[in-house]
Amino acid sequence: MGTKIACFPSLIPFAAIFGIGLGAACIHIQSMSILKIAKMGHPVLQMNAEPVADPTAPEVRRLAADMVETMMDAPGTGLAAPQVHVPLRIVVFFVSAERTGEDADDTAVPLTVLINPEIEVIGDEYEEAWEGCLSLPGLTGAVERPYRIRYCGVTPNGEIIEREAAGFHARVVQHECDHLDGVLYPMRMDDLSKFAFVEEIVKAHDADEDQAAEAN
């Protein structure tokens, strides 16, 4: 692809990651590409990804930029390098304000590029919630995960990121980092009766609402 113009205000704080020029809350990204997303069953999703030797290398910056473009186009809230057929330990993600909770660590998160990430679970609280994945299109499942974590990693500028996260923020980070170890969310599920097509879940929900309305 050639030059792209994209308007993602959440990316502004991280524009320097890609050497991006800003104008009117837009980012101007040279030669970004939308990559093909690997689907469940592809061997690349079953591998342990390799650490990135030099997070500041130009090819790493280019891959991260392409991953962001692919994630936004899908659209999704996170993407791991193995999902675009590259077995390296890189994830990109953000959390919109609409997905946050009441916890102080479950807040909106601007675009983050995390290289060689590490996760530490905090406490013993777990939470079950529905998840989806760009590598399992049309499907969703209820997954129990640690509610609170601490994570760290390196940016393409060589800066170290260290954060605590809770709720949806923590879930997104765990989900994406699972991809780096060849783990898809159904492998974390205890009850596969809660693994279904999104379309069918929506139909069942609508039917329940109709029945409740008729009862009233």
Would you mind describing this structure in some detail?
Helices cover 22% and strands 29% of the residues. With 216 residues, the chain is an alpha+beta fold. The protein has a single domain (37-215), classed as Peptide deformylase (Peptide Deformylase, Alpha-Beta Complex). The chain starts with a strand and ends with a helix. 35% of the residues are buried.
* Cα radius of gyration in angstroms: 18 Å
CATH class: Alpha Beta
Distance between the ends:
55 Å
| Architecture per CATH nomenclature, i.e. the level-2 architecture | Alpha-Beta Complex
> Which class of secondary structure composition applies to the elements?
alpha+beta
State the helical fraction: 10-25%
Counted up, domains total: 1
Element-level helix/strand string: EEEHEEEEEEEHEH
Would you summarize the structure shown here?
This protein has 216 residues and is of the alpha+beta class.
